[in-house]
Structures are given as structure tokens and as C-alpha cells.
Amino acid sequence: MLFPLPFSKLSLSASILSTLLFNAAAQTASSLNCTEFFVPVNISTQTSKLNVTAPSSQAEMTGLITRMTWANSSITNDVNLGTTALNATYKIWSQLCVPDGFGANGTLEFTIHGGTENHTYFSLGKDSPFNYAQAAVQAGHAILTYDNLGAGKSDKPDGIQEVQISTETAVGIALVEQLPSVLKFGKLVGVGHAHGSVIMMQMLAQRGNLFDATVLTSIASSTLGATTGIAAMNLQIASESAPEFHEGLSSAYTVSGGWTSDQTTFYHFPFFDADVLDDLHRGREVMALGMLLTLPENRPALNYTNSVLAVTGDRDYFMCAGNCNVTTNGFDSAPAAVAGLFPAAKDFTTHIPENTGHFLNYHHSAPQTFEFIQNWISGAL
Ligand SMILES: *[C@@H]1O[C@H](CO)[C@@H](O)[C@H](O)[C@H]1NC(C)=O
Ligand SMILES: *[C@@H]1O[C@H](CO)[C@@H](O)[C@H](O)[C@H]1NC(C)=O
Ligand SMILES: *[C@@H]1O[C@H](CO)[C@@H](O)[C@H](O)[C@H]1NC(C)=O
Ligand SMILES: *[C@@H]1O[C@H](CO)[C@@H](O)[C@H](O)[C@H]1NC(C)=O
Ligand SMILES: *[C@@H]1O[C@H](CO)[C@@H](O)[C@H](O)[C@H]1NC(C)=O
Ligand SMILES: *[C@@H]1O[C@H](CO)[C@@H](O)[C@H](O)[C@H]1NC(C)=O
Ligand SMILES: *[C@@H]1O[C@H](CO)[C@@H](O)[C@H](O)[C@H]1NC(C)=O
Ligand SMILES: *[C@@H]1O[C@H](CO)[C@@H](O)[C@H](O)[C@H]1NC(C)=O
Ligand SMILES: *[C@@H]1O[C@H](CO)[C@@H](O)[C@H](O)[C@H]1NC(C)=O
User: Fold this and answer.
1) Where are its TM segments located (predicted)?
2) Residue located nearest, by CA, to atom 7 of ligand 8
């Protein structure tokens, strides 16, 4: 693992104190029946005390990012001064889309997006073939998307000491625990993308069968591509590089260098629509440094006994350095090797769409991939 962190530093108990409050309910202009709201979550966790301060210049930021990508970088250990307790309340922006006639025994998909993304990763554009939420609703499922802590319209606390994997995991668990007060449903399916899949694996390692089935997209068991991926993102101080969106935000928050950086890291040429890339990334979504500095060690979900599906594009640059068809730990591909982290799962399926990069949902293969995922969910429940 590229950024090893002792497991003990990550362990936490997410004690959930909050009750759900809706404010601002709105119908979107789409054909989907969606409601948007903020969920206040109280979390209690252990974070890493990091000996890093928000960079005072882009040069310092670039120096820090470069240090993360050195061969055998030990930065994660070098800056870690131990753990500290964090009790906090955050406002998390969420969107729930429910199909007509959804019943109390229906299936709800709970999604978590990745870094430099927001909920839009799963719901881009009305009637777009790249809109995962729409595919889920068409399959008769309700779907919850949210902006991760430190992204989109959710709270952006200290980007180094607070927006860390343990906090993101605690927020995910807190949201899952509150779902029954939002919607009556029968089965719950987790759907993660990239860093969202990593968060989800931490949630399952802690809580076992939190989901009745789990779909991990753009995931691999190694971080073959993380070094080149992080370097290629060409991370900038968000408030300086995109002041039109992020003026006043702490310099602990980064944005990718722009269109070319996004293409290199997330897209496999020429199997995507340039206007989709442009639309999605125009908002220059942020990513907190604390997230990159606390990438977790792989930790098996020993108590998870339901089914798992791993879906990763064969040309995923970030996860597989551009070729996921590599034998890994005795498995015939890097995504298949994720099975090693689910020793008690009743079933593990791997699907590798061809000509597809890290942003799985935005390649030409997406409609077939969405269909594959929805069919798999039906079979797994
Ligand atoms: C969550 O934390 C806030 C702020 O500390 C507090 O006002 C609220 O009562 C807490 N919610 C619950 C259910 O304890
Ligand atoms: C924190 O890092 C600085 C170098 O950036 C170092 O001089 C200092 O000793 C470190 N502090 C601790 C407590 O390790
Ligand atoms: C990185 O670690 C590997 C395995 O421990 C070692 O063989 C290699 O020499 C190291 N490379 C550098 C640049 O330190
Ligand atoms: C944090 O919350 C836990 C309960 O979840 C409580 O035991 C602890 O005292 C709290 N710590 C602080 C500093 O408020
Ligand atoms: C829209 O979803 C809400 C639940 O979020 C439900 O109460 C309402 O009946 C749905 N409307 C339609 C037209 O399906
Ligand atoms: C789900 O609930 C509806 C009524 O809400 C019922 O008609 C249907 O048979 C149920 N389906 C299953 C699979 O239990
Ligand atoms: C973030 O969300 C906004 C809408 O809230 C959207 O326009 C933008 O494209 C999103 N950015 C990313 C990278 O997901
Ligand atoms: C798994 O479940 C067992 C039995 O309930 C429990 O003792 C153990 O702590 C759990 N392990 C983890 C990692 O949650
Ligand atoms: C990966 O393997 C599949 C199945 O053999 C193949 O169709 C695809 O082209 C391969 N992709 C790469 C990047 O080698």
C-alpha cells in the first residue's frame, strides 16, 4: 500500500447522536422525483494529528503533493503525530430520488462519490445516458446521493485535521443509520465510486452487513496507479486556481489542474464525450489534503457476509496505472483481488468494462455498465 497507516490509527467508533432534519425540500427539474435536503450528522471518531499546515503558496502545495508521490514515500507516517478524538456536527447535502410506486419493500441504493467529485458524479444531466441515478430509478430503485464532507454543498471543515478517512467513514455510517427516517425501504445497497468505494470498505470493515449487497466501482486492491494519478491531477490551491467558485476557502482544499489533468487521470481517450468532461468539471470540485494524507491500509471486512460486485474499467489510470488486467495476489485482475478483503462474502463478482477509464459513469460503456449493475443487484438480493 502506498500510504500505509497503522490500522489502530484509523479505528473509530461512530456514535450517532443526531436526528434527521429536513430543510429546503425542492423538486428538481428532471423527470426524476428527487428531493434535496441537508442532513445534520453528529459524529464521534478518532482522527490522525497531522504535522501539516495549510500551504501558504502554490509552491508549498506542489512540494507537498510531490512528496506524496516520491518512490516509497513515507509521508503518511512522517507527518502522523498520533490520534485525537473528534466530536463534530456536520451538515451534509443529500438528494433522494424515488421511483413511482416505490413500496416499503423496495430497494434503496446508497451512493458515495470519490475525490474531486460531488454527488453529480452519479446524476449528471436529465436523460443523459451517463446518469446513473436515472438508470437506478428506471430499474425501480430509490437512490440517495450526497456531497461528501468537504465537497459540494456539504460543510468544509478543517481540510487537514478533520476531512480524513475516519471522519468520512463516520459520516457514511451516520447517514446509513438515519436512512429509515428518510424513506421506508426493504433492502439497502451500497454503491461507491473510487474514494467512495474506499470509504465504503471501511464502513463494512467496521459494521459488517451494513448493506444487503455492495457495488464497489473504480476500485482495485492495490494502488498501482495512485502515484502517477495524484501527480497527474496537478493539484492547485482551490481558492487561487478557481476563485470564482472557492474564494475564501482554506488552502488545505485543492482542485485538479483542469481539463487536461482530468482527462489524463479519469478518462480513456477517445471513449468519452468531451462535452461531458467539460460539463462535469466546469465546477472545479474540491478535494481536501487530509483525505490524501489518510488513505487507509486495506482492511478486510471480516463480518460482511452479503454479496459484492467490483466494477472497474480496464483502462483505469488511477487504480491500475492504465491496465487492470494484471494478475494481483493470485487473482486474474486488480479489481478481482478486492475479493481478498471480503473473506466471508457469500459471493464476489468482478466486471471489467472495456475501453473505460476511472470515471466509469462517463465513458461510452456506461449504459451497458449501468444495466449490468442493476441486473446484478436484482440477482444479489
Ligand atoms: C447534535 O449536535 C448538536 C450540536 O452539538 C446538538 O445541538 C444536537 O442536540 C445533537 N443531536 C443529538 C441528537 O444529540
Ligand atoms: C513537524 O514537522 C516539522 C518540519 O516540517 C518538524 O521540524 C517538526 O519537528 C515536526 N513536529 C513534530 C512534533 O514532529
Ligand atoms: C522502494 O522499495 C522497494 C521495496 O522495498 C525497494 O526495492 C526499492 O529500492 C525502493 N526504492 C527507492 C527509490 O527507495
Ligand atoms: C465525544 O463524544 C463521546 C460520546 O460519543 C463522549 O464520550 C466524549 O466525552 C465526547 N468528547 C468530547 C471532547 O466532547
Ligand atoms: C416522490 O417521492 C416522495 C418520497 O420521497 C413520495 O412521497 C412521493 O409520493 C413521490 N411522488 C411521486 C410522483 O412519485
Ligand atoms: C412489495 O410490497 C407490495 C405492496 O406494497 C406487494 O404488493 C408486493 O408483493 C411486495 N413484493 C415483495 C417481493 O414482497
Ligand atoms: C459539482 O456539483 C455541481 C452542481 O451542484 C455541478 O455543476 C458540478 O459539475 C459538480 N462537479 C463535479 C466535479 O462533480
Ligand atoms: C465481528 O463479529 C463478531 C461477533 O459478533 C464480533 O465479536 C467482532 O468484534 C466483529 N468484528 C469486527 C471487525 O467488527
Ligand atoms: C482486458 O481483458 C479483456 C478480456 O480479455 C479484453 O477484452 C480487454 O481488451 C483487456 N484490456 C486491456 C487494457 O488489456
Assistant:
1) none
2) 303
Mean pLDDT of the chain: 91
Structural domain contains residue 60:
yes
- Enter the pTM of the model: 0.91
- Is 104 a pocket residue for ligand 3 (Cβ < 6 Å)? no
Atom of ligand 5 nearest to the CA of 102: 14
**Is the shortest distance between the CB of 344 and ligand 8 below 6 Å?**
no
Which residues form the domain of 185? 7-380
pLDDT band at 128 (very low <50, low <70, confident <90, very high): very high
pLDDT at 19 over 60: no
**Is residue 88 over pLDDT 80?**
yes
> For residue 226, what pLDDT is reported?
87
Is residue 122 domain-resident? yes
Comparing 10-24, 56-70, 92-106, 153-167, the range with the smallest average pLDDT is 10-24
User: Cell 475564501 sits at which residue?
Assistant: 248
355 lines ligand 9 (CB under 6 A): no
Sheet containing strand 187-193, edge to edge, reads: 34-50, 80-97, 142-146, 107-112, 187-193, 213-217, 307-311, 347-351
Per residue in 236-254, pLDDT (tens digit) is 999 999 999 999 999 999 9
DSSP 346-366: SEEEEE--SS--S-GGGBTTH
- Domains in the chain: how many in total? 1
Does residue 244 form part of some domain?
A: yes
Q: How far apart are CA 208 and CA 193, in angstroms?
A: 19
Does residue 162 lie within any of the structural domains?
yes
> Which of the 8 DSSP states describes residue 272?
B
Ligand nearest to the CA of 71: 3
User: What CATH number has the domain bearing residue 179?
Assistant: 3.40.50.1820
Spacing of C-alpha 192 from chain mean position: 6
Nearest CA to ligand 8 atom 2: 303
pLDDT reading at 64 higher than 80: yes
Please name the residue whose Cα sits nearest to atom 3 of ligand 4: 44
